[in-house]
Amino acid sequence: MPLLIATDIRKSYRRTGQADTVVLRGVSLSVSAGEFVALVGPSGAGKSTLLHILASLDDADSGSIELTSEKIRQASIGSSNVVNYASIDDKQRSRLRNEVIGMVFQFHHLLPEFTAVENVMMPLLIAGVADKAARARAMTLLEKVSLAHRAPHMPSELSGGEQARVAIARALINDPAILFADEPTGNLDSANATAVVDLLCDLQRTSGITCVIATHSDEIARRAQRVVKMKDGLFTS
C-alpha cells in the first residue's frame, strides 16, 4: 500500500472582484514508503501549493489525501494507521504535522529567540517530551548534520547553510513518516546548496525516510528516485 495517496487535487485562490486564479487543476499522486520524489517545474506551476496541501498546511478545494503510517495511531490521530485529511479536526492536524510529517521551508523559519538546539527540540517539547530527553535527541541530530558545535548559537549567528541544516534536523526530530521540503536550496549559494542536497540525499539513503521535494534544482532532480514534472497546475509527461 502506498504511504501517501492524493487524488484529483484542485485549488484556486479567490479575490473579490477578480477572476479566480486556478493553481491546481486536478492532480493525483501516489508516493511509496521510502521513495524520494522531486516535484519540478517553472515558477507558478503549482509545486509549492501542492506540497503545502500534501503537508496539511493548506486545504484543497476538492480531492482527497490519505496517509498511511503506524505513527498515525501512535499520535492518537485516529484508531487506525490510515488518515484521510478531510476527516480530522484542527487539533488532529496539528498533531499530524508535529508527529507524523516533517517540513523544511526555503526560508527555514527558525525561531530567532531560541538557540539552534532549542529550535530542533521544539517539536518534541510540543509533543510533551521532557526537556532532557528532547535536548539529547536534538544534539544527536545536530551531530548528524555536522552542527553539534553550533548548538548554543542563535539563528542570527548561523550562515544560511547552517540554518538550512538546523531546519532539516528540526524536521526529523520526531522521526516523521514523510518529509516535505519546499525549495530547500532556493535561498542558498551554490556551495551551500550542494551541501544541503548532499545531506538530504544521504539522510534519505541511510534512514529510508520518504521525501517529497518541490525544487528548481537540477541536482535534486537528478538524484531523486522519481521526478514529477508540473506545468500550469497539471502533471506533464
Structure description:
With 237 residues, the protein is of the alpha/beta class. It has a single domain (4-229), classed as Rossmann fold, CATH 3.40.50. The protein contains eight helices and ten strands. It has helices at residues 47-54, 70-74, 90-100, 116-126, 131-144, 160-172, 190-207, 218-223; strands at residues 4-13, 21-31, 36-40, 62-68, 82-84, 101-104, 178-182, 210-215, 226-231, 234-236. The strands form two sheets. It has a six-stranded mixed beta sheet with strand order 6-7-8-3-9-10, with helices on both faces. A four-stranded antiparallel beta sheet has the order 2-1-4-5. Strand 7 (178-182), helix 7 (190-207) and strand 8 form a beta-alpha-beta unit. Helix 4 runs parallel beside helix 6, helix 5 crosses helix 6 (160-172) and helix 6 runs parallel beside helix 7. The radius of gyration is 18 Å and the shape is globular. The two termini are 24 Å apart. The mean pLDDT is 91.
Low-confidence region ranges: none
Major β-sheet annotation: 6 strands, mixed
- CATH fold group: Rossmann fold
Count structural domains. Answer: 1
Topology as a string of helices (H) and strands (E):
EEEHEHEHEHHHEHEHEE
Span between termini? 24 Å
Task: Quickly give the CATH architecture.
Answer: 3-Layer(aba) Sandwich
